[in-house]
Design goal:
The complex is a heterodimer of chains A (371) and B (343). Chain A has 371 residues and is mainly α. Chain A has one domain (2-370): ABC transporter involved in vitamin B12 uptake, BtuC (Orthogonal Bundle), CATH 1.10.3470.10. In chain A, 75% of the residues lie in helices and 1% in strands. In chain A, helix 5 packs parallel to helix 13 and helix 14 (295-307) packs parallel to helix 16 (343-370). Chain A starts with a helix and ends with a helix. Mean pLDDT of chain A is 85; it is low at 1-14 and 142-150. Chain B is α/β, with parallel strands linked by helices. Chain B has two domains: 3-208, Nitrogenase molybdenum iron protein domain (Rossmann fold); 217-342, Rossmann fold. Helix content of chain B is 44%, strand content 15%. Chain B has 15 helices and 14 strands. Chain B has helices at residues 3-16, 18-41, 48-52, 88-96, 115-121, 135-140, 156-164, 177-190, 194-215, 242-249, 266-272, 290-294, 303-306, 316-320, 326-337; strands at 64-67, 73-76, 83-85, 103-107, 126-128, 145-149, 169-172, 222-226, 228-230, 233-235, 253-254, 263-264, 276-279, 310-312. In chain B, the strands form four sheets. Chain B has a five-stranded parallel sheet, sandwiched between helices. A four-stranded parallel sheet of chain B has the order 11-8-13-14. Chain B has a three-stranded antiparallel sheet with strand order 9-10-12. In chain B, helix 7 (156-164) links the parallel strand 6 and strand 7. Chain B is globular, with a radius of gyration of 21 Å. The two termini of chain B are 21 Å apart. Classes of the chains: A mainly alpha (371), B alpha/beta (343). The A-B interface holds A 44-47, 71, 73-74, 76-77, 80-82, 135-136, 144-145, 147, 152, 154, 204-209, 211-212, 215, 220, 222-223, 225, 334, 337-342 and B 70, 72, 108, 126-137, 139-140, 142, 151-153, 155-157, 160-161, 164-166, 260-262.
Chain lengths: 371, 343
Amino acid sequence: MRAAVATGEAARLPIGITLTRTVVVLGGAGLALAALVVVAVTVGSAQVSIGDTAAILGRRLLALPIAETWAPSAEKIIFDIRLPRVLTAMLVGGGLAVAGTVFQALLRNPLADPYVIGTAAGASFGAAIGIAAPLVLPALAIGAGSSLLGLGVVQVLAFVGGIGTVLLVYAVARGGGRVQMVTLLLTGYAVSAVLAALVALLMFVSGRALGAIFGWLMGSLANAGWVPLAFATPLMVVSFVGLLARWRRLNLLLLGDAQAASLGVHVEREKLRLTVLATLATSAAVAISGTIGFVGLVVPHLLRLAIGPDHRLLLPASMLAGAGLLVLADLGARLVPGGGIPVGVVTALIGAPFFIWLLRRSRLLRAELAA
Amino acid sequence: MSEPSCEREGITMSTRLRAPVFILLLLLLAACRPDAGSSASVPASGSPEATASPSEQPVTNYPVSLTDAAGREVVIEAEPMRIVSLAPSNTEIVCALAACDRLVGVPEYQVGYPADVAATVEDLPVVVSFGPVDREVIVASEPDLILAAGNELTRSTDIEALTDLGYAVLVLYPESLAEVSADIELVGEALNAQVEAATVTAGMAERVTAIEEAVADADRPRTFYEVSIFEGTIYTAGEDSFLASLIDVGGGDPITGDAVTTAITLEDLVLADPEVILLGDAAYDPTLTADAVAARQGWDEMTAVVDGRVIPLPEDILITRPGPRIVDGLEALARAIHPEAFD
């Protein structure tokens, strides 16, 4: 039975996994997330009563026969603006946290985040072209107003830029049929530097579009809607399912390439597949929300400290925690009067100090364990 | 500050001009309203002659389809009574058309409004500050018309989203004096305030003509308008920009920067050797004076500095806000360049 194999592996890792533990961790995280989502859908810059909110959602989502006693504007606010935004925050937060977990394991680098091998720089470059091009070359303006199947040109270019850059980095870093993870990191860094310079150049010549590009770089969920959500959801699901199915191989890769290979893992193939799957989630997230920082860096570390490094539990728990964190951060971001502030600012403002606290705490913890 | 006095001047001017403007308005109505009014909004019924009659005031027949500055077709179903403005210039246009009381949402930036506009907007919900608009607050204010600004001043993503939510979004982005008037008339048609719009634009046209005549025979000094200096980069009027055209109408020969970034290098500026330097940024920073400019490295040899023609312009908001008071800005500009022509 699979469970027996898993227990055998888990014995080698510091913290074992039991069914009870899984239920407690994932159930608790799931309930907390559900509670957060309820709060986030109820609270916003416009006032809609809790009763109306529940009734609107019941009518639209569950097709309950509830009489329309609320103003049409309330239904627009809840169903067309707030709900897709909260769901987008969940999806993006979950996707970034899972991708961060995978990259940290894959690169065996604690500083790794979903953007580290070029996704962010590539997506930013794509988005900046999409935003600035119509203003620099007015002939392109016709394309910018219209959208590709209801999806903005900017989002498509960001997605393609993110995926394309990682594939390029991977191809460049490859040598003799192998990819050294250090080489991958450094190549990603170098390619990102080139793309960041091009983005800076685009920003400089973009005139009025500067604000839009800058806002995109800071990460924002202000443009969330059903169409971008429908674009990103299938990509995320493919990535989640693919990554969750690979929890055991991720665990084995933690032991080192040689060890993993001796235990039957096709190391090079798995590295590529994991990279592509994690990049899929990252690019889908970035395409619909810009580059939101710190979620993909902090959440995996936090959870590894809390529940240990076994990816069978770590991956789904990261997903739930990342989703909850971004829903919470976006709630704070959009409650700032006058149209809100970019959620990327909030995640960095909360995330960075929290990360420092975490580092100090884990050092103390390790010192205690060593003593 | 000299700004209040400038506003008072604008008000007395418009009162004084009321009679001639009314006559001009009647002429305008007779000359050009018929085809614009009838073809757009009266399908087949009623002869064009009836609408052309000068005694009859032009009215907008709803639903009306208008083409905005972004080239979009915007259909307005009924006379808008709940208007959200996403730019200060749009707010001023609505108020100039005596529809201030129809505003239900305004931008956070409320600097430099005339007193009546300031009093109206102060208690209204804020729907946008510097970033994207607050979609929830806009929807909650239940608008029947949203007046956005073009060229990413209102983000195109927001314009698209608000349109998708089912609102009539009219994008205004005038890039010349003629387009400011055209936009005022467009809003007039949208609000069924065509008479008010024609009055405003006729008044503006008359004043522009007066300014043009005043500076017609004067020399045209090379004029540099300082928009701002940020981190060492000098921003001025872009090539072929609205601001450059205002300087031109005001009787100066504009020294322009890049068409997109609106930046000019100090080297190019020294080479262009301005005869007049106008400090638009002095409106926001009182430490910017002629002495401060003379003390800048590389600026002391410029003709304008040597001749003492470095002039702070507290009217920057009037000059850069493309609304009904743009002519006040133009006049301030012309007076600064040619004080002798306005004695």
